[in-house]
Specification:
462 residues; alpha/beta; 20 strands; binds ligand BES; binds zinc ion
């Protein structure tokens, strides 16, 4: 077994150490390099004097695991005391969890369709494992839930589509406390947004509920995730050169599924329901059309201006369902608007809704790596949603504040806006290149964030 030791130091004079015979690779900005030290290969991570955030530690761990894999090492070994000594401003437990999590995610690959270049796992070992097992396990669970989300998001639309989505969920949750409920035809017949958007597809639309109750006394938190397994735009067809990324338009649904997995794997004391409308938005002779009017179960009517603004239409059914089920707190998450991506890029999602809760999401994200930033909801822009013949339109008369308009649209379907937040993750669903613990492709965004939010809600008095 090819094993390599990893050593941390905050003294960069180590680079001048005479024992270092050969520096193979210097890797800024985390300043890790692989060196031959007294005939022994080691990874030396040299740190800057600035404080490392927990996510910097995850990123560094991810970089190291990927780097040493390139050198065909099978195991990387660290010494907790050495890590702890270097980052003495953190507790040992959180360091271990972060390191394990970043390591495993850095080792993630979606290569099931590759016929060559398959990569092998690179393990992390501790030279002093005693007393840290539980922290290792949390790191493993967080990485696995995020990898589960990534797998769903990366999966191709021929495999993962509205016909097969329920089976994916049933399989994933079969030996857990999570109950997977696929809505029957009658309940689905009242989900007018889901049915309209899905009606052009060969794959029948579905609505899934993932119930996890770790503590009945906790307020019910509904996590609503957009599950568009492919977004062609429908009749308002997308015309970009490469729209294969639109298979990832179920990133919200995958985040919800990942969060429920993480909560159940960690036996969290929460009461959560994941609500997932699943459709394919496709161009067909039966597709819904611009000009069509949908009247929702809560009696709000919506005229379609553009069939590409489909996400909000299916989320509306999810939000109505959340209040029917008596959810106290509601979060929805969706790859909703290109505007959110333009505003915040690929590393930060936009959060709308209650200011206090949106700020809580921001701080949780800063800790767990799923970064998010609050954006405003300007009431007077509601006028942009006016429609001549229905209560509202699904698009804005002024396209500029697209992400905010979408959020204002969703607010029509909320019963208590003081307990609601909306996360627009259109920008963060994927990474264009590997870096830190991110591989190219799905980021796995939202699994950790939603799980941590549910725990936060359930452990603090709001
Ligand atoms: N799924 C898209 C949003 C999107 C764009 C996600 C880019 C990820 C990357 C969504 O359904 C959409 O098409 N939104 C339109 C809405 C518009 C027609 C009002 C948009 O944002 O352009
Ligand atoms: Zn769309
Ligand atoms: Zn979409």
């Amino acid at each position: 077994m090819k094993e390599i030791n990893i050593v941390f130091s905050n003294d960069d004079r180590i680079q001048d150490d005479k024992n270092i015979q050969h520096i193979i690779s210097v890797n800024p900005p985390n300043s890790c390099f692989i060196a031959t030290l007294a005939n022994d290969m080691v990874v030396i991570a040299i740190l800057s004097s600035e404080k490392y955030e927990l996510d910097d530690i995850r990123m560094m761990a991810g970089d190291i695991s990927r780097k040493i894999k390139q050198y065909k090492f099978k195991v990387g070994k660290i010494n907790v005391e050495n890590v702890f000594h270097t980052f003495d401003y953190y507790e040992k437990g959180e360091l271990v969890t972060s390191f394990v999590e970043g390591w495993m995610l850095g080792d993630y690959n979606f290569d099931k369709y590759k016929t060559r270049e398959k990569t092998e796992e690179v393990k992390l070992a501790f030279s002093d494992e005693l007393g840290i097992e539980s922290y290792i396990n949390i790191g493993i669970k967080r990485a696995k839930a995020t990898a589960f989300t990534r797998d769903l998001v990366n999966e191709i639309p021929k495999e993962l589509n509205p016909s097969t989505f329920p089976a994916y969920m049933k399989e994933a949750f079969k030996q857990t406390k999570v109950d997977v409920n696929v809505l029957n035809e009658k309940d689905l017949s009242e989900m007018h947004g889901v049915l309209a958007v899905g009606q052009g597809s060969a794959h029948p639309a579905h609505f899934l509920e993932l119930n996890y109750c770790g503590d009945q006394s906790k307020p019910l938190v509904a996590l609503v995730g957009k599950g568009v397994t492919f977004d062609t735009g429908g009749v308002s067809l997308k015309v970009r050169r490469n729209i294969s990324g639109m298979r990832m338009d179920m990133g919200g649904a995958a985040a919800v599924a990942g969060a429920v997995k993480l909560l159940s794997d960690t036996h969290a004391q929460v009461n959560v329901v994941g609500l997932i409308p699943v459709v394919e938005n496709i161009l067909d002779q039966r597709s819904y059309l611009p000009g069509d009017i949908i009247t929702y179960k809560n009696n709000i009517s919506v005229q379609i201006g553009n069939t590409d603004a489909e996400g909000r239409l299916i989320l509306a059914d999810g939000l109505i369902r959340a209040s029917e089920l008596g959810a106290t707190y509601v979060v929805d998450i969706a790859t909703l608007t290109s505007s959110a991506r333009q505003a915040l890029g690929s590393e930060i999602a936009g959060v709308f809704g209650d200011e206090k809760l949106a700020n809580a999401i921001k701080s949780l994200g800063k800790e767990n790596g799923d970064f998010a930033w609050p954006l405003p909801l300007n009431n007077s822009y509601e006028a942009y949603l006016r429609s001549a013949h229905a209560d509202i339109s699904n698009i804005s008369s002024d396209p500029a504040p697209g992400a905010m308009i979408a959020a204002l649209f969703l607010r029509y379907f909320i019963t208590d806006a003081r307990k609601w937040v909306h996360i627009d993750m259109a920008g963060v669903k994927e990474r264009s290149k590997e870096r830190g613990y991110y591989a190219q492709g799905a980021s796995g965004y939202g699994a950790r964030l939603l799980a941590d939010y549910a725990e936060f809600i359930s452990s603090t008095k709001q």
